[in-house]
Amino acid sequence: MVSKEEFLKSITDFELRVNEAISETERFPIYDGAINPERYFDVLKTTNAPRLMYLLKEAYDEDGGGWAYRDLFKTGADELLKKPTWSTLAYSSYGIQENLLWNDMPFIKEDSSVKESLNDVCIVNIQKLPGLNGSRTNMNDIRKAYKNHKAFIDEQIDFYKPNIIICGGTFSVLREETSYDFVDWVGEVEIYERNGIHYIDAYHPSYRGIGQEVYVDDLVNTFRKLKNVK
Q1: Architecture of domain 4-227 in CATH?
Q2: What are the C-alpha distances in Å from 136 to residues 52, 59, 139, 140, 173?
Q3: Could you tell me the residue ranges of all domains in the chain?
Q4: Could you report the per-residue pLDDT of 81-138, keeping only the tens digit for each?
Q5: Which of 36, 45, 60, 71 could crosslink 119 through cysteines, CB 3.0-4.6 Å?
Q6: Within 13 Å, how many C-alpha atoms sit on residue 84's CB side?
């Protein structure tokens, strides 16, 4: 396995290549991946630890991007977690890591370990540039971005070595390009497998049609089913 220094340098090199390949005059990449690369490196070394990657659609920035999730989380996590997407990501990550369902979890405001759980996951967007339509995603843009950025996404999957990829409203885009083997379903989500990685077809974490509790518990129960734990 590479050293931590080599791991961190690989992230920097990757981001430089992304910047050179896709930057536009007034739109620049929003760098995704490990929220805390140092912590995620430790996850990679831990036997049987869940290596979680969330594959989402796109980020928004009226100022054109050019920043990284890891820096945004480092300086403004509390503000981020007031947003439904980020609080759901935190509760889901915490529940999977601690094997706890919603009713057994503390609230984010009461226990910093819920927030800290995001330091051990990767968040990757299909669209590497800021979204073109504000907070209203056009799925045709996401399909186009996947065709354009697929090589980068595949590289991130290979580099971060997730054993579970939670697709937040994005799995239909992946299936248009690649076949996956159906495994099972849990509640509102379906489980697929390809090359030893389990892909979870879930709603986007901001989706409110089923409620945050159901969303989180479905993902925790999915992890339990995959790992045969209770």
Answers
A1: 3-Layer(aba) Sandwich (3.40)
A2: 26, 11, 9, 12, 17
A3: 4-227
A4: 999 999 999 999 999 999 999 999 999 999 999 999 999 999 999 999 999 876 678 9
A5: 36
A6: 11
